[in-house]
Design goal:
Elements lengths: L9 H4 L2 H28 L2 H9 L2 H31 L6 H19 L7 H36 L1 H4 L2
Helix pairs in contact: 2-3, 2-4, 2-6, 4-5, 5-6
């Protein structure tokens, strides 16, 4: 394929994926906070329950989860696409497999939502998948920094040699 038209965008395209994934990590942490608050509201009694329900944690958790799903899927597609544009191939390695695993986990977790109302084991599975997803996101962030450093060395060879 001919990607000459994208040459001017190339330096910026290389950072779409890392920025999106770091944003998704922050969003995932916020989603976890909201999920914990939903659990607190579900298990609370009396005035505390009324107060927690007013904060609409469940609705916000669901909305943030939807945003997280989109960020991870689009970020993964973007990362694979930019890698192909830059290298003419998809780089097969642990970072790719963990990213694809993240797409699978976030999709499965979202698919469980309609079944969580009355099934405690589904809710537990949802939480477990999301904790694994959060761990993979953290690992991806660390390994992604190494990849970004490599890209920067290629883009700025004179700076790297000084």
């Amino acid at each position: 394929m001919n990607f000459e038209g994208l040459e001017a965008l190339n330096p910026y395209l290389s950072f779409f994926h890392p920025v999106t994934m770091w944003i998704s990590l922050v969003v995932a942490l916020y989603a976890m906070y909201l999920g914990v608050q939903v659990r607190r509201a579900r298990l609370a009694d009396g005035d505390l329950k009324k107060e927690l329900v007013k904060s609409r944690f469940a609705i916000r958790h669901h909305q943030i989860g939807s945003i997280l799903l989109a960020l991870i899927v689009m970020g993964a597609i973007g990362g694979i696409t930019v890698t192909y544009i830059n290298n003419g191939k998809i780089v097969i390695g642990p970072h790719l497999f963990a990213g694809l695993g993240m797409v699978g986990l976030v999709s499965t977790s979202a698919a469980l939502v309609p079944f969580m109302q009355k099934q405690d084991w589904v809710r537990s599975l949802h939480v477990s998948l999301n904790l694994i997803l959060l761990g993979l996101s953290g690992w991806q962030a660390v390994t992604g920094v190494q990849i970004v450093q490599k890209i920067l060395r290629q883009l700025l060879p004179n700076v790297a040699n000084q």
